[in-house]
Amino acid sequence: MAFIGAEPVIAQTLERFANTFADCGFRREAFYPCYGMAEATLIISGGQKTQAPVISHVSDKMKAVIGCGQSRLDQKITIVDPESLIQCPSGKVGEIWVSSPSVAAGYWGKPEETKQTFHASYAGNTESYLRTGDLGFLENGELFVTGRLKDLIIIRGKNYYPQDIELTVSQSHKALRLNCGAAFSVEVENAEQLVILCEVERSYIRQINVNEVIGAIRKAVSEQHELQVDAVVLLKTASIPKTSSGKIQRYLSCSHFLHGSLDSIRKWTVANSQKDSLQLQTELEQHLLLSKPLTVEAIEHWLKSHIAVYLKVLPKNIDTKEPFTYYGLDSSVAVSTTSKLSEWLGCELEPTLFWEYPSITAVAEYLGEKCNL
């Protein structure tokens, strides 16, 4: 048996492992995804040792989620909305709660924390439960773990699991280390913004093309998650905070980021890429002066200027042939920019314009034909 208690259990990883070791006689049935924590004297759920892992496909781009088995012996698992404290129906994500004789009595010398964590009860039930702080859902009795409640990233009211973003980042460029990155949000000008930390492979440190790597990260996150990255920090090998069992310490990573104490190779932020505001405004005005009469070139100038203002960079630093995702433009920015462009041109444009024509050049050429320029 191959016990797997990773955070999270990734379907693609199991597939690659099984394919790699198939010639050695490895059977998929040997995989044993399970879930547990120290507060419950380790194991909370596990499957049948003769069965292959259970897979559920969620609606988020049909993502495959691996089941971590069912409750063992006399343990009870339920899913509860962490805010309303109402029990969740089957298939809905909420906080994982556990009731069992194996659950500890509490935290030594911490009565308030013990009360909140070990003696919780949901609406309509007086039984005492352990609040695990983990998110997941139940489906036909099978437990699917999706992430940590405290690590959850919420941007513009939408939930994002840091593990998903971290996997996207680590696969965006060969210079980045797998399972050695952290994604979290920080407040910037009264809004939550995404921060990415990732270690660089030792063999790439001396020859790394920083702009290429950061561009690849922003592009991948924009394409896969429709988010703009506000800051990227490339770290030296083996420097990101981890637990003794190898799990990323996101809270500590965030603290180091805010205090500037990371062992970094290079730090990039949207704010630091902003040039002098007067120079930016002057160049913007110059671009807009070129917009009369209306030509394909004028449309390109307009788009460069507006995107530059959003990214807080000079228009001359915008490559019109790069896809919008390269600059990390998310869906809300794409729609609002399309609306402003529609007003400027004096004609109605579809909100999907930036998806159908994914670069400044492509949009300008399309509009040139549409407007007979």
Count up the domains. 3
The geometry reads as elongated
CATH architecture of the largest domain: 3-Layer(aba) Sandwich
For the largest beta-sheet, the strand count, sense and barrel status come to: 4 strands, mixed
Detail the topology: elements first, then pairings.
Layout: E1 2-4, H1 11-20, E2 31-37, E3 42-46, E4 55-57, E5 64-66, E6 70-71, E7 76-80, E8 94-99, H2 111-118, E9 130-139, E10 142-148, E11 153-155, E12 158-160, H3 162-170, E13 176-188, E14 191-200, H4 210-225, E15 229-235, H5 250-259, E16 264-269, H6 277-289, H7 296-311, H8 331-345, H9 353-356, H10 360-370
Parallel strand pairs: 1-2, 14-15
Antiparallel strand pairs: 2-3, 3-6, 4-5, 7-8, 8-9, 9-10, 11-12, 13-14, 15-16
Any overview of this molecule?
The strands form five sheets. Strands 1-2-3-6 form a four-stranded mixed β-sheet, with no helix packed on it. The protein has a four-stranded antiparallel β-sheet with strand order 7-8-9-10. With 373 residues, it is α+β, with helices and mostly antiparallel strands. The protein has helices at 11-20, 111-118, 162-170, 210-225, 250-259, 277-289, 296-311, 331-345, 353-356, 360-370, and strands at 2-4, 31-37, 42-46, 55-57, 64-66, 70-71, 76-80, 94-99, 130-139, 142-148, 153-155, 158-160, 176-188, 191-200, 229-235, 264-269. It is elongated. β4 (55-57) and β5 form a beta hairpin.
